[in-house]
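hey so i finaly got around to running the thing on Amidase domain-containing protein from Paenibacillus alvei. pasting the sequence first so u can double check i didnt mess up the copy paste, my clipboard has been acting weird all day
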Amino acid sequence: MYRWFVIPIFVIVCVAVSSIPQYAFSAEQQTVDNELTTFIQQLFANRAKYLLRQEDGLLRDFYMPERASSMRAMKHEQMRAQYVQMWVKHRQLQLADAASSPRVIRAKKRNDQVFVSAVDSLRLGYTYNQPSSQVEHFGIGTRHALTLIRKNGSWKVLREWYLDPLEENPDLIPKLTELPRNSASNRVNAKTNQASGLHSTSTRYNRDKAIDYANKYAGIAWGAGNNHRYNPRYRDYTGQGGDCTNFASQCIGDQEGGGLRMKGGWHHYRSGGSKAWVQTDAFKNFLIYSGYGKVIKKGTYTTIVQTSNQHPNGAWAGLKAGDLIGYELNGDIDHFSIVVGFDAQGYPLVNSHTADRYRVPFDLGWDKYTMYWLIHIRD
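ok and heres what it spat out for the 3d tokens, dont ask me to read them lol
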């Protein structure tokens, strides 16, 4: 699940990454420029290390204990690390590595403070708790607005805002005594990052192209293509409620993607998308009633992975790369992602926008109350 992580009391203007000018100071500010860039790079590098090992010394020097907003920002990083570590424990995994690639987009200096806009491409790797388990890597992209302040000649984080897909309560992760595995066919095909149903000769839905599109335009997430930019032919709804459904529609409907024909109120125009194109519940309803999609199962994490007579390997075993997952909170669909493959054990991996994800385990960042809509897109 993601929330708006808000520390400061100021207005953030949300703009598409592709339209933000490159960060630059004038020549006489070059010293501040280099120093600030170094600070941001070290801050995010230490945050990535903190996800691996929770040593407070990795974070302490970047924050100010006497400022409440600064301490809230540090506490957030501590809680997200606790969540990630608890998630890998419950999934019988180990976090293998973590690395950040932050980029300062722009900065504005005012007296002893600097207001910074930055983006970060975080790469995380995990392994299964078994011999010869390969490292599986995935990427997450986040947009940050930070206020930095000078203290004793060094920069410190005074406050920060960002949409964090890893902000979740570690106590609400579904606890399973034995992690179910996906179907045998998916485990075999996962070794080549494919799934049954790929390379089909269908003339309606092209799964290969839908997945290629999802990987190319996954934004600022580590691993994404197109120089970490969205498809410029589409409006970016990041600052207008989120871009996840717009992206899912693109993946299955763009001619560069899955190529499904626009119909029945599901359209994209030069000015933007229709309600069914960009709004989560309307999109879900369109998929079902148009016949483009079929619900495999709706349920909590525990429900969709448990075996039954109808689903001997769990309902999630019915997913193919190119299918969609909707995430329901409190009776409303909150998010959509597209399945782009499976890891070596057959665990479904997804891409999305808001926040940007690349080959992320499908339930990372969501809790035990989340209702998953597993939607098969008909070939």
